Amino acid sequence: MRRLKKILFYFILTIAALTFLYPFYWMIVASLTPEENIGNLSLVPQGLTFDHYSDMVEKIPIWRALFNSLLVATISTFGVLVFGSMTGYALAKMRFKGRNLLFFTIIFTMTLPFQITLIPNYIIMVNFKWVDTLAALIVPALNSAFAILLFRQAFLTIPDDLIHAARVDGCGDLRIIFQILWPNILPSLITVGILTFMTSWNDVLWPLIVIRQEELMTMPQLVTLFAVGGRSEAQLGVKLASAVLLALPIIIAYIFLQKYFIQSMASSGIKA
Amino acid sequence: MKAFWNKISPYLIISPYIIHLGLFVLFPVIFSIVLVLHKWNIISPMEYVGLDNFQRLFSDRLFWKALWNTFIFILVHIPLQIVIALFLAYFLNEKILARSFFRAAFFMPVVISGVVITILWQQLYGLESGVINRMLISLGLNRVEWLSNPNIAMISIAIMATWKNVGLYVILFLVGLQTVPRSYYEAAEVEGASAWQQFRYITIPAINPTIFMVVILSTIGGFSLFIEPYIMTDGGPLNSTLSAMLYIYKQAFGYYHMGYSATLSIFFAIIIMGVVVVQKIFVENEEH
User: Is B137 touching A (CB cutoff 8 A)?
Assistant: First the structure.
């Protein structure tokens, strides 16, 4: 009876795992299969071909988009880590007038649905003449209320003595934050880093709004417009190839860092 | 001099955030209220129209349609997520080998771009050659018009969104389940409590906060739903998948109705905040 139950458990879990993994596998196989055979369900490509990939590279500047996405995500993540820990440090360890007001303002901005600021932010971009520049993708993403609160929480657990000792040694606040405290809050840095990078990498609504020029598009944006526009000429294989290329960097990162991915996402869920 | 520096250094350290906050959050909030009272296409000067945008909103058939569609989405999405996530978390909570593999597998779609998921599912949902319909036919069933039937299309999108997000809730439910000591169930068993009673009086209280979180996040997700209908259906057929966010996007960047799209944004945002507040009150009442 117990063994039967165990077998049933593994059976159900395996079916569930396949439900989540098989579609990705199908997508990769289909992207390597000649167009006329894609419809056939098979576990290996029937007539292996890389034509879809070479077609896609010819039709859209996908490498340029990959570069743009990497650049935008890297700088945004760096900004969120640096500015987030500065503000989080001030909230946790410094005394100044308006600290509580700042704290509650940050909490208020977190409860604010992004829909409210979306249209005005677009108008700001128009007025700054930032439409069709990477600045429009990077600058608004340089701060995150969630990151600030997480860093504040992390700094609160660090004893004041550590900071006093550093100050006696002549360290300024910035050196204290980045040289003394950062090594002590690595888990928070990893969490914020992964979340920010992923959010930036996967965002597509904002790029669709502020970038029109193909050379400046991010990867999800370019792939989206390729899929909905006429340029993939309704060819399934090419569309799927572009989707595979978009998914690949995150899949690879996920395979190596899955523990951190899961922890980060779970903690961002709990914050709500 | 030193005392002066000590006084202003906190403000220097928060200044990058303060500038950012003012420019990209506080100013936009105020500006969106200004926009609501105006008609503006960005190019010509703003025209003050009072409360016309609100009047227009209440008589706008597509606004109500988008609200209704979002409601349908949430209505399908929330129960599906709770049931499936709880089901999978329950199995993962047993002593099993390779738990971290299963966990990682369920979580995979959560980290992958919605663009990839949507392009993929558009093929899975295909009428003739889609993988799902082929499977249905090989099982001797009829094919389903996943994306071309206006009564089904939004439900199809909700199913896809569930597939994408459910892994996150599996993890969160698992955390909730693991807070319950096994001895509780053993004690309940000794007392002769049925499986349902154990579930109702031990499991449910432990995962209540997670259920609350699923409801909040799915509501926000429903009102933010954009890329899925944008790629799959462009809001069709017959506007049956026109989501709130897609409608804002079309009004703003298709027709350049800045005032009206800001009005839509504020309205949907108020609904989101209202839902969150009501649920918070509801949960707090439960606890007392």
Answer: no
Confidence at residue A230, expressed as pLDDT on a 0 to 100 scale: 65
**Confidence check: pLDDT of B128 > 90:** no
The yes-or-no verdict on residue B97 having pLDDT over 90 is no
Residue A270 pLDDT level (bands cut at 50, 70, 90): low
Residue of A nearest to B33 (CA): A116
ipTM of the complex: 0.91
Residue B123 lies in a domain: no
Give yes or no: residues A148 and A19 share one domain.
Answer: no
Q: Where are the alpha helices (DSSP H) in A34-175?
A: 51-59, 62-93, 99-111, 115-127, 135-138, 145-156, 160-168, 173-175
Shortest Cα–Cα distance, A123 to chain B (Å): 8
Count of domains forming chain A: 2
Would the CB atoms of A266 and B171 count as touching at under 8 Å? yes
Asked whether residue B46 is assigned to any structural domain, the reply reads: no
Residues A100 and A227 in one domain: yes
The larger pLDDT score, comparing residue B125 to residue A42, is at B125
Is the pLDDT confidence value at B164 over 70?
yes
Integer CA distances (angstroms), B73 to A85, B57, B67, B119, B241, in order: 38, 21, 10, 19, 9
Number of domains in chain B: 1
Distance, CA of A265 to CA of B172 (rounded, Å): 10
- Token output for B54: 């609100």
- Dig out the tokens for B238 from the structure: 């017959």
**Residue A38 pLDDT greater than 60, yes or no:** yes
What percentage of chain B has pLDDT greater than the value 90? 64
B129–A38 C-beta distance less than 8 A:
yes
Exposed / middle / buried, residue B279 (Cβ in 10 Å: 0-12, 13-18, 19+): middle
Mean pLDDT of chain A: 91
Contacts of B92 in chain A (CB under 8 A): 13
What is the domain-level CATH number for residue B86? Answer: 1.10.3720.10
From B27, B109, B129, residue closest to A39, measured CB to CB? B129
Q: Classify residue B77: in a domain, yes or no.
A: yes
Determine which of B113, B213, B268 to mutate to test the interface with A (most A C-beta atoms within 10 Å): B113
Q: B93 near B85, Cβ under 8 Å?
A: no
A13 vs B9: CB contact, 8 Å cut-off? no
User: Do B268 and A113 count as a contact with CB atoms less than 8 A apart?
Assistant: yes
Mean pLDDT, chain B, whole residue set? 91
**A43 and A66 assigned to the same domain:** no
Chain B, residues 38-77, CB within 8 A of chain A, namely 42
A140 vs B contacts (CB less than 8 Å): 24
Do A25 and A141 share a structural domain?
A: no
Residue A101: closest CA among chain B residues belongs to which residue?
A: B18
Q: What is the CATH number of the domain that holds A123?
A: 1.10.3720.10
Give the domain extent around A42.
Answer: 2-49
Per the CB < 8 A criterion, the answer to whether B69 and B63 are in contact is no
Question: Of B35, B107, B227, which is closest to A262 when you measure between CB atoms?
Answer: B107
By the 8 A CB rule, do A152 and A162 touch? no
Q: Is the pLDDT of residue B224 over 80?
A: yes
Provide the pLDDT for residue A272: 45
Same domain flag for A110 and A9: no
